[in-house]
Design a protein that fits this description.
The protein has about 260 residues and is of the alpha+beta class. It has 7 helices and 16 strands. The strands form 4 sheets. It has a 7-stranded mixed β-sheet, with helices on both faces. Strands 11-10-12-16-14 form a 5-stranded mixed β-sheet. Strands 1-2 form a two-stranded antiparallel ribbon. The chain is globular.
Length: about 260
């Protein structure tokens, strides 16, 4: 097999998102049964149906696989290229009929996010990109915003974190906070220039973050951990302590701003 290019990866992601859309077609957001998995997370037949088509279409023999809906296989740790997938990120929103959920497909190469695709069928957006080729929003070129000032910067916050009061310290600061479900979708919005930044106050799994992180980097933004560190993927324990994603021009003032707060 010849060298795989970023163009090849994006074509595979686009095709996989098409298959995911077909798998979702029989299901109606807001009118679907669910059950609880270990850890008090809901799962639906739609999650499993999308996982099945993505697993069948994405990984090749020498590539790893990490998905919320598949038992983890340590063989992925020796793979250079690993698909990190959340078949339905924002399952709670999907169950409730809130249009803030998505299919999330990330490609990690040597531990770093390289390409990603996000499909938000209800919201009507598809964001696809790679660090080599940039981002496309609904088929058009896109990028992170040019925002460089915290005053009025649009920051997307976790709906559940806001409900628990964890974002209260930020409401008296210059930023503008908007609640939204789905970690992956929030990240994709930053990568495609629909928001200026987002961060999480609690640990997240790699499948929540990988695709969106790739899109933020592809769009010219920055992604880092709660202490400013680089985030590495395909770890034995695929859980991150938290993350920050921002437009590139906002990175420096945001780093200074967040030093005043404990965000994880």
């Amino acid at each position: 097999m010849g060298r795989i290019t970023a163009h090849d990866d994006l074509a595979r992601i686009e095709a996989a998102l098409d298959l995911a859309a077909e798998a979702l077609d029989p299901f109606t957001p807001g009118a679907i049964a669910s059950r609880m998995k270990d850890g008090d997370d809901p799962v639906t037949a739609a999650d499993l149906a999308v996982n099945e088509v993505l697993l069948a279409s994405l990984p090749r023999a020498d590539e790893g696989w990490l998905s919320e809906e598949t038992a983890d296989d340590a063989d992925r740790l020796s793979a250079q290229r690993v698909w990190v997938v959340d078949p339905v990120d924002g399952t709670r929103e999907f169950i409730q009929g809130i249009p803030e959920w998505c299919v999330s497909i990330g490609l990690v190469i040597d531990g770093r996010p390289a390409a990603g695709g996000i499909l938000g069928p209800t919201a009507g957006h598809r964001m696809v990109g790679s660090v080599d080729d940039g981002v496309r929003l609904d088929g058009r070129p896109a990028a992170v915003t040019s925002c460089s000032d915290l005053e009025g910067a649009l920051v997307l916050a976790s709906r559940s974190e806001v409900k628990r009061g964890e974002w209260e310290p930020f409401f008296s600061t210059p930023i503008s906070v908007r609640n939204m479900g789905s970690v992956a979708y929030k990240l994709a919005c930053v990568g495609a220039g629909l928001a200026d930044a987002t961060w999480t106050l609690v640990p997240k799994h790699e499948w929540d973050v990988a695709a969106g992180a790739a899109l933020v980097l592809a769009g010219g933004g920055a992604v880092f951990g709660p202490d400013g560190e680089e985030i590495r993927f395909n770890q034995p324990n695929p859980k991150l302590p938290g993350f920050v994603a921002t437009a590139g021009a906002l990175e420096s003032p945001l780093r200074d701003f967040l030093k005043e707060f404990r965000i994880n």
